[in-house]
Design brief:
With about 325 residues, the chain is an alpha+beta fold. It contains eight helices and eleven strands.
Amino acid sequence: MVAHVGAMPSSSFFASLPRLPRFSSTKNKPFVVAAMSDDPVREWILSEGKATQITRISPVGGGCINRATRYNTDTGSFFVKTNRSIGPSMFEGEALGLNAMFETKSIRVPKPFKVGPLPTGGSYIIMEFIEFGASRGDQSTLGRKLAEMHKAGKSEKGFGFDVDNTIGSTPQINTWTSDWIQFYGEHRLGFQLKLAQDQYGDRSIYEKGQRLVKSMGPLFDNLVIEPCLLHGDLWSGNISSDKNGEPVILDPACYYGHNEAEFGMSWCASFGGAFYNAYFEVMPKQPGYEKRKDLYLLYHYLNHYNLFGSGYRSSAMSIIDDYLRILNA
């Protein structure tokens, strides 16, 4: 993801396609995907976006899946992502996640405004443009605000999310499940293991990984897990700060899960001691935390293996082998 915010009416909310579940909050206005036009982004900005003139359109670097653009107008700036080959469902999932995080009133996220199809194929999302500061901001503030989001964002439906979304460009299945071990084993590890087998013919990692999935229950002994709203893809490229130094998180792959799973991308997030100390002051560390850390790294190593190739296979296999040894499986 990349830099984003600008002046926009705070009452402008996002909406889902009719085939997707409505937001649970009654504060949200129902919305539909934008109607087709020659330039639906420009059309929305000059109507519902309240602008009368677009003064500049400039590319924003940083993404590898989508094209990012800043639209400057006489009423402020907008951040727009487009993808010429993927329909609106990917951005719908992102928008629902951003809105869910926004509603916790904890950590700052760019507020989504509109999703729709492009007339020549593909899709777009329009959101708040946030002018980034010079650094990622204070680590302790990031840890505290992330914990506040986890504490505030709860689900009565169990583990999952109202829609499937993507982790990178990989589908992420979010079917509601009452049991966390089942959800993580089936929809996170199991899905990635099957993908590795189908994509690479990697029967070894699939079979060993399935042994781990069937044996990992003891890692959660005597643990009560509440579904927490997770960003889902929290690495350094998705963390920044605004001009006031307040942390901002971007490009989510949201779902409700075990809060510890949020640290699954910590191997490329550069979280320091100040981050964790502040986080655990709000969300206390649970028994057995250390022995589960690598289990949550595994999902993301498997996803990187499936997305980027064999360079990540050894890290994933090493974690699987270690757990099989520890669990005598």
